[in-house]
Write a sequence for this structure.
């Protein structure tokens, strides 16, 4: 070793090199393990969700009873009827429909309403009703939290209206009339 | 030449031996080493000699003792010299020490010669010792080096073994490492990837397993549900479902299909993940095995290198071990040779030791001989000083008078014996030591014999040792200056030893050798004594008369006394009297005379009496100048006369003595003897009079008391005699006055008063005061006597306290009156005092009884009871017990403490009272119990009742027994104990029928029987009580209640009889009589006797009418009951063919009851009215039903039968209308009278049934409207 200073520098650098390299190798191995573990965990969780749904299907199969949401959509004044509707259950599309002309015409009559029956499995849901309206820039929607048991029908009455001075249609629950 | 010889020896020694040269310096150096003891001893010896000559024995003894102690220290120093240790320096030291300890003035030639020899021998031994030590040192060094070489060799051997072990281990490591790759490859073949993964990565393995299991289970469930759903669809033909439900089945099938698809996707994903995981596990396994294989290869190389290094080290160690072994052998041989040389030298040195020791011993013995001579001289000085001190009794001849200390005698003997040289040697002080030693041994023998006590002893002291020592002195040193003294001392020893004849011979030889010896008078006295003892009275008289007047007073007195005896025994009393008187006079004023003077006086008196000169004794004494002995001689003469029974002459001598010597102290004895002599002469009065007058002879103000030289002791004795004399005289004349009254009571009182005034605190004062109080009591002066007794009782000595207090109580009792509470209080106070002062007094019972009576008279009940009870506890006879407890009982009763009073009276009964007294006590006991029970409140009836009953049981003859039983019943009733109460009242009712309490008992019994469910017995008592009533109303009330109770007891006959008796009482209230008839009817009805009942009801109605409507309500009910009897007869009647008569009979029957019901409606109260209306309605309905139910005649055709029925209905319709009317009337009157009962209710029911349109309308109710809340959504539920 002709240059002692160079040797000293190498000795000083060596520990840092060792510190810098060793964790990288270790982290790579750990990442690999964690990645597979995460994937396996997600598979297990998804299997658990499917098992839960299967249990509810089993209830229906054992004693078949009509279990559904009944959504009645009314219009305020002369607002145009919606074209289609989508029901999101826990963030996923649970049902979807395009209203035929007959129903849309009925919507325009004085006491008419669009009625949408959706069969569902028993349980509690985080639900969102989204309508497609010809005039609206955005789709009017309404969030609700239904809970149904086997043989029950959850009735939702909503009114589609256009607030004064606004071009965005609003979907709101229909108030009950007292005495009925 | 004697001086030159040691010097020559010393010079030679200096030349021959280096150590001897220093011997010249011995004396100078050794003085200090011996602490200068030789000089000290010499000085102390001189000092002791000088002090003895000066007469100072104490200091001489101290100096001699100190000298002896120094000699002892000297000896100790000599003995404590350390033994010679065999070295030359120590030899010089030993010799120095011996020189230092040699006494001054002693011959030192022997010591010098021995010292020189000793020093030369020790020097030679020192040289041999040095050579020996050098040899031994070399031997030790050789052996140490040899041992070191051996240890080093052993250490190298251990290292060699260790090198072998290390090499072996290296080889083993290399072999094992070489086998590792093979084992690794075999293990890789055996292990599975799955197991490896479970061990190294358990978390991921578990997740993989869980996901696989879930997919598997899910797939199975989906298949099962799909088949179930399909089954539902296929079964629709047999089990139709509603369309909505069927739609749900399809919906479920759709969801199942979607779930199956999703499960398939997840299963594929799991397979992919499993493959990735397994690859990762394989990679990890390969990496790990590669690293192990590399390590194994490195280990093989390292083991082989280590084994080679170990072999090289072992070779080097073997070479070193060989060299150390050679060194060890050589050094061991050298050590052996050095050891042999040392042994030879040691042997030579040991041979020189005995001659050296012998030389040193010789030197030591010469020093010891000189020391012994010094000690004898000092012992002699100490012994002489101590002997002089002991024999003269003082420490110094002129100065210090201290007596010899205890223990000095044995010390002196020890010194003197130690000062005597051994046989064959002489010392200048030997005769002196022998004399002193003999004298001390004589003293010692006396002390040992008498033990320090004076007095004669029958045996003689053992004086053999001093006798032998005196004889040795006289034999060995006949010309000694101690010869005269030794001879007298020898005579004394012989006399004391009992060899009196030899002693007299030695004394006679002494008088021959030394006629004017200082011991001449004593020798003559002893010779006289010897002859007197052998009855040679004339010879003795001669020897006694040789005692010169110049002799000591003691010798002279003894010689005169023995001379008197010699003459008296020769019957010459007249000559003996002067000799005795001389002896007495010579003994007077001499302290050590002992009893000689008294004996001489007594013999003087006896000689006078023997010579018949007693009447002229005073003259004889005066002539011989013996007045100083006069009172004593006269007193002795009085005693002699008294002993000769010449009492009156003896008393006369006492009188002569008083006249001749008025101030003589002997007068006290003379008066005492005179009083005793008179008593012996049976002249008690004179004797007592003489004793009573002593105060006037010797009391204050008399010549005797004021005489010069009168001592306090004599005065005290005179006072004591006077006090005793007055007391004895007082008691004597008091007793005489009691024996022969009236006596000289004034003289007695004067003597008592005189004594109490003169000697108030004398021991006799209390007794005198007590007797004085008795004197007053006997004279009838009770008030004075009380105070006198109380003052005696309050004296502190209290010998007569108990009797005095008792007598004080008796005086107070005698002075008291029952009507005067103040005097009773005095009695009580004194009784209390007695009890306090003497809680165990002999007369405590009597005093307590007196106190109790006094308290009782003062109406202090508690105090009286307490005192009497205490008296009772201490009573000794049954009569006393009765007396005490009777007083206690009466006091307690009066004080309201009845239970305690009862106990007290029972105590009286237990003590067995007299037959005539017993009833009275029992009466008091019973009264006490009665009062105690009476005092208990009603709430404690259960306690009071037994107490009442106990009176009746225990004292059945008492007049209060009926009342006690009655009160017991009442108490039981209060306590709710009916059975016991009934028994108590029954005992009064049956056992004391004549008692005025009997009716009350019957009344109480009736109530109790009724309460306890025995109505018949109660009714009987009430019936009995009715006979005692004076008016009809009272009788009626008892009988009515009795009838009710009979009825309650199911005795209808007696019940109705009682009711009848009530109704028959003409003056009884009408309502009562009507009600009684009605109740009688009810009773008969209950027994099924309807006729009798109807008659009673009828009588009731009639009486009601007679008395102008006195009891309408009862009358109405009677009418109703009568109607009911008829109604019950009406109901069974049927309308049957032939129709006419049966119809008429039923109609009549209906009319009979209806009339009575109508009458009841008119008379009775609301309940009767409504019941009657209801019954009328029911009767009419029954009649209608009977009509409709009547069978048509048999011979009618069908049409006729139909016509017949039609006719019947026509006839029945008005009857129904009448029934309705009756029911309606009932409702009307009920509404009008605001009355409602069962009959009204029944009427209303019938009206509803008969006229439903009018009376059966249903009510209407309005239902509330429930508001519906504002819901976001509505859940509609279908029925399952």
């Amino acid at each position: 070793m002709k240059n002692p200073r160079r040797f000293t520098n190498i000795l000083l650098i060596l520990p840092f090199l060792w510190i810098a390299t060793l964790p990288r190798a270790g982290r790579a191995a750990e990442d690999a393990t964690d990645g597979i573990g995460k994937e396996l965990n997600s598979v297990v969780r998804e299997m658990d969700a499917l098992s839960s749904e299967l249990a509810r299907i089993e209830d229906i199969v054992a004693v078949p009873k009509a279990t559904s949401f009944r959504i009645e959509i009314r219009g305020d004044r002369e607002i145009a009827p919606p074209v289609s509707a989508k029901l999101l259950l826990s963030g996923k599309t649970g049902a979807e429909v395009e209203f035929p002309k007959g129903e849309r015409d009925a919507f325009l009559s004085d006491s008419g309403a669009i009625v949408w029956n959706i069969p569902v499995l028993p349980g509690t849901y985080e639900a969102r009703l989204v309508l497609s309206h010809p005039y609206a820039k955005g789709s009017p929607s309404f969030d609700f939290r239904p809970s149904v048991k086997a043989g029950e029908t959850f009735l939702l009455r909503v009114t589609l209206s256009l607030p004064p001075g606004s071009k965005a249609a609003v979907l709101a629950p229909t108030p009950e009339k007292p005495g009925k | 030449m004697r001086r030159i010889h040691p010097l020559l020896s010393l010079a030679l020694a200096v030349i021959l031996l280096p150590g001897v040269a220093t011997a010249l310096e011995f004396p100078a150096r050794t003085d200090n080493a011996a602490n200068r003891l030789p000089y000290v001893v010499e000085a102390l010896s001189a000092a002791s000699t000088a002090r003895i000559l000066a007469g100072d024995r104490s200091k001489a003894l101290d100096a001699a003792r100190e000298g002896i102690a120094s000699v002892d220290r000297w000896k100790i120093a000599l003995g404590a010299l350390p033994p010679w240790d065999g070295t030359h320096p120590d030899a010089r030291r030993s010799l120095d020490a011996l020189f230092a300890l040699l006494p001054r003035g002693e011959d030192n030639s022997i010591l010098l010669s021995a010292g020189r020899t000793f020093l030369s021998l020790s020097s030679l031994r020192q040289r041999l010792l040095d050579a020996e030590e050098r040899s031994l040192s070399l031997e030790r060094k050789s052996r140490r080096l040899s041992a070191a070489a051996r240890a080093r060799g052993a250490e190298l051997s251990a290292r060699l073994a260790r090198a072998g072990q290390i090499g072996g281990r290296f080889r083993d490591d290399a072999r094992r490492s070489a086998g590792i790759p093979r084992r690794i490859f075999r293990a890789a073949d055996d292990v599975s990837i799955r197991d490896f993964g479970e061990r190294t990565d358990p978390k991921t393995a578990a997740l993989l397993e869980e996901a696989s299991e879930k997919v598997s289970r899910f797939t199975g469930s989906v298949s099962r549900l799909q088949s179930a759903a399909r089954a539902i669809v296929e079964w629709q033909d047999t089990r139709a479902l509603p369309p909505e439900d069927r739609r749900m089945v399809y919906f479920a099938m759709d969801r199942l299909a979607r779930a199956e698809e999703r499960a398939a996707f997840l299963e594929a994903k799991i397979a992919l993940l499993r493959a990735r995981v397994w690859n990762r596990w394989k990679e990890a396994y390969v990496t790990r095995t590669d690293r192990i294989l590399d390590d194994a290869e490195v280990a093989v190389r390292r083991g082989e290198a280590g084994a080679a290094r170990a072999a090289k080290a072992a070779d080097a160690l073997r070479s070193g071990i060989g060299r150390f072994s050679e060194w060890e052998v050589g050094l061991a041989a050298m050590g052996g040779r050095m050891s042999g040389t040392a042994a030879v030298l040691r042997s030579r040195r040991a041979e020189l030791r005995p001659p050296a020791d012998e030389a040193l011993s010789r030197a030591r013995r010469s020093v010891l001989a000189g020391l012994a001579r010094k000690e004898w001289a000092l012992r002699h000085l100490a012994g002489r000083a101590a002997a002089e001190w002991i024999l003269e009794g003082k420490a110094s001849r002129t100065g210090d008078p201290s007596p010899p200390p205890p223990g000095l005698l044995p010390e002196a003997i020890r010194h003197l014996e130690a000062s005597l040289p051994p046989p064959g040697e002489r010392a200048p002080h030997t005769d002196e030591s022998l004399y002193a030693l003999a004298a001390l041994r004589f003293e010692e023998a006396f002390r040992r014999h008498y033990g320090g006590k004076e007095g004669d002893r029958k045996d003689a002291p053992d004086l053999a040792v001093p006798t032998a020592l005196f004889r040795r002195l006289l034999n060995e040193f006949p010309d000694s200056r101690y010869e005269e003294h030794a001879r007298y001392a020898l005579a004394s020893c012989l006399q004391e030893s009992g060899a009196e004849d030899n002693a007299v011979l030695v004394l006679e030889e002494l008088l021959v050798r030394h006629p004017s010896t200082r011991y001449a008078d004593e020798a003559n006295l002893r010779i006289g004594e010897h002859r007197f003892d052998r009855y040679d009275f004339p010879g003795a008289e001669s020897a006694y008369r040789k005692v010169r007047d110049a002799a000591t007073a003691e010798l002279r007195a003894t010689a005169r006394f023995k001379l008197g005896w010699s003459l008296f025994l020769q019957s010459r009393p007249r000559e003996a009297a002067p000799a005795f008187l001389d002896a007495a006079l010579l003994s007077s004023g001499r302290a050590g005379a002992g009893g000689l003077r008294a004996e001489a006086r007594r013999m003087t008196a006896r000689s006078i009496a023997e010579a018949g000169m007693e009447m002229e004794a005073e003259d004889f004494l005066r002539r011989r100048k013996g007045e100083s002995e006069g009172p004593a001689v006269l007193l002795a003469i009085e005693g002699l006369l008294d002993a000769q029974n010449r009492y009156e002459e003896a008393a006369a001598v006492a009188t002569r003595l008083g006249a001749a010597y008025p101030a003589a102290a002997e007068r006290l004895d003379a008066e005492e003897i005179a009083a005793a002599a008179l008593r012996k002469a049976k002249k008690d009065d004179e004797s007592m009079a003489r004793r009573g007058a002593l105060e006037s002879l010797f009391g204050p103000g008399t010549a005797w008391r004021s005489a010069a030289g009168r001592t306090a002791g004599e005065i005290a004795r005179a006072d004591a005699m006077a006090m005793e004399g007055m007391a004895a005289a007082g008691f004597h004349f008091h007793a005489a006055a009691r024996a022969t009254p009236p006596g000289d009571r004034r003289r007695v009182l004067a003597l008592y008063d005189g004594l109490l005034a003169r000697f108030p605190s004398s021991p006799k004062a209390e007794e005198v005061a007590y007797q004085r109080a008795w004197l007053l009591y006997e004279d009838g002066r009770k008030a004075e006597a009380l105070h006198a007794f109380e003052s005696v009782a309050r004296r502190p000595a209290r010998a007569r306290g108990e009797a005095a207090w008792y007598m004080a109580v008796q005086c107070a009792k005698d002075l008291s009156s029952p009507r005067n509470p103040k005097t009773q209080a005095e009695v009580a106070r004194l009784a209390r005092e007695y009890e306090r002062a003497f809680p165990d007094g002999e007369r405590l019972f009597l005093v307590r009884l007196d106190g109790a009576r006094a308290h009782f008279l003062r109406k202090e009940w508690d105090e009286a009871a307490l005192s009497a009870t205490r008296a009772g506890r201490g009573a000794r006879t049954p009569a006393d017990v009765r007396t005490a407890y009777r007083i206690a009982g009466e006091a307690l009763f009066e004080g309201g403490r009845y239970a305690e009073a009862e106990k007290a009276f029972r105590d009286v009964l237990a003590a067995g009272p007299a037959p005539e007294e017993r009833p009275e006590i029992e009466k008091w006991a019973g009264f006490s119990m009665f009062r105690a029970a009476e005092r208990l409140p009603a709430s404690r009836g259960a306690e009071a009742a037994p107490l009442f009953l106990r009176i009746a049981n225990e004292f059945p003859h008492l007049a209060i027994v009926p009342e006690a039983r009655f009160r017991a019943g009442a108490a039981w009733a209060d306590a709710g104990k009916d059975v016991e109460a009934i028994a108590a009242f029954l005992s009064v009712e049956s056992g004391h029928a004549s008692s005025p309490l009997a009716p009350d008992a019957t009344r109480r019994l009736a109530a109790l029987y009724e309460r306890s469910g025995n109505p018949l017995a109660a009714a009987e008592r009430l019936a009995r009580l009715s006979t005692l009533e004076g008016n009809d109303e009272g009788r009626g009330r008892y009988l009515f209640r009795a009838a009710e109770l009979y009825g309650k007891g199911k005795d209808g006959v007696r019940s109705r009889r009682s009711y009848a008796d009530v109704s028959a009482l003409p003056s009884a209230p009408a309502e009562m009589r009507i009600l009684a008839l009605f109740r009688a009817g009810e009773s008969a009805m209950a027994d099924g006797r309807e006729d009798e009942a109807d008659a009673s009801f009828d009588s009731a109605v009639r009486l009601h009418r007679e008395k102008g409507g006195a009891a309408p309500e009862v009358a109405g009910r009677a009418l109703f009951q009568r109607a009911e009897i008829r109604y019950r007869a009406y109901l069974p009647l049927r309308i049957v063919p032939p129709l006419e008569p049966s119809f008429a009979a039923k109609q009549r029957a209906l009319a009979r009851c209806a009339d009575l019901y109508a009458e009841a409606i008119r008379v009775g109260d609301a309940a009767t009215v409504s019941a009657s209306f209801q019954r009328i309605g029911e009767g009419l309905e029954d009649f209608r039903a009977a009509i409709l139910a009547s069978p048509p005649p048999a011979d009618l055709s069908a049409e006729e039968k139909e016509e017949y029925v039609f006719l019947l209905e026509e006839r029945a319709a008005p009857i129904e209308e009448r029934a309705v009317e009756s029911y309606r009337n009932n409702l009307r009157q009920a509404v009008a009278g605001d009355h409602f009962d069962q009959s009204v209710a029944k009427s209303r029911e019938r009206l509803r049934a008969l006229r439903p349109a009018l009376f059966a309308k249903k009510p209407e109710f309005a239902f509330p409207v429930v508001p519906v809340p504002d819901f976001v959504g509505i859940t509609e539920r279908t029925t399952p």
The CA atoms of residues 14 and 78 of chain A lie 82 Å apart. Chain A has two domains: 9-64, 68-173. The interface with chain B takes residues 32-33, 36-37, 39-41, 43-44, 46-48, 50-51, 53-54, 57-58, 60-62, 64-68, 119, 121, 144, 146, 148, 151-157, 173, 175-176, 178-180 of chain A (CB under 8 Å). Strands of chain A lie at 68-75, 84-89, 92-98, 114-119, 123-124, 127-132, 141-144, 147-148, 152-161, 170-173.
